[in-house]
Specification:
Blueprint (H helix, E strand, L loop, with lengths): L2 E5 L12 H7 L3 E3 L19 H13 L5 E6 L2 H11 L4 E7 L10 H8 L11 H8 L5 H8 L7 H5 L14 E6 L7 H10 L4 E5 L5 H4 L1 H12 L2
Helix pairs in contact: 2-3
């Protein structure tokens, strides 16, 4: 069995994987899910001081502790992070998995990609509960939505405005899989397709879920992740 490293998206923390982790472990896999700096319990730096390099250093530290190459999963903003990590830690990664995530080209920032894909997602702290649920957690239970909402934190700006730099020599050697969520209202499914067409992946898996399948369809998500680990 393999090791999964799960990287959360903007505003979130490792808590978003709380349904997924035990299911992957039950299937025999090791799972590590860090809080990125400025998120969850990793609040050593103030939000406005957090940089993309801080995010990278956090993930580097996790990978350096692993005895074997990992399956590195990035959700949403996490896609940008796993791409840049793969440029520098190529030999520590078995596969990259983009879960309704930003799959950026060399020289792109997440903000630039969002503008190409249409209107950026709303700031969770500036919209009504109804709008927040519809956008981020459309097919999640009301209980899961309330639980998630209380754990969201302000998103550091520097990481999402910093371009990534990747090369075919390093990043390009790591196999990629994309899991597209067809009911996603944060990253339009058409734009997800545009990204994984421009940056071809070995495999594309479709899920009929919103932007948060780790809460709304954890069993299906884990089944897909396990299939990626074994093929």
């Amino acid at each position: 069995m393999g090791t999964f490293v799960l990287i959360h998206g903007a505003w979130h923390g490792r808590w978003c994987w709380q349904k997924v982790i035990p299911l992957l472990e039950k299937a025999g896999h090791k799972v590590v899910a860090p809080d990125l700096p400025g998120h969850g319990e990793n609040r050593v730096k103030a939000t406005e001081e957090v940089t993309l390099q801080d995010y990278l250093n956090c993930v580097f530290g996790v990978l350096d502790k692993q005895l074997e190459p990992v399956i590195l999963v990035g959700h949403s903003m996490g896609g940008m992070i796993i791409s840049q990590v793969a440029e520098y830690k190529t030999n520590k990664i078995k596969k990259l998995v983009y879960l309704c995530a930003f799959l950026l080209k060399d020289g792109e920032s997440l903000v630039e990609s969002m503008l190409q894909g249409g209107a950026p997602p709303p700031n969770p702290f500036n919209v009504t509960d109804a709008a927040l649920k519809e956008c981020f957690y459309g097919d999640c239970s009301d209980a899961d939505f309330r639980w998630a909402k209380t754990r969201l934190v302000p998103q550091p700006k520097a990481p999402v405005t910093t371009p990534i730099h990747i090369t075919d020599k390093n990043y390009g050697r790591v196999p990629r899989v994309y899991i597209t969520c067809l009911l996603d209202q944060v990253i339009n499914p058409a734009y997800q397709k545009q990204m994984y067409t421009a940056m071809p992946c070995q495999r594309v898996i479709s899920m009929n879920t919103s932007h948060s399948p780790f809460l709304s369809a954890p069993e299906e998500l884990v089944k897909n992740l396990v299939s990626i680990a074994t093929t």
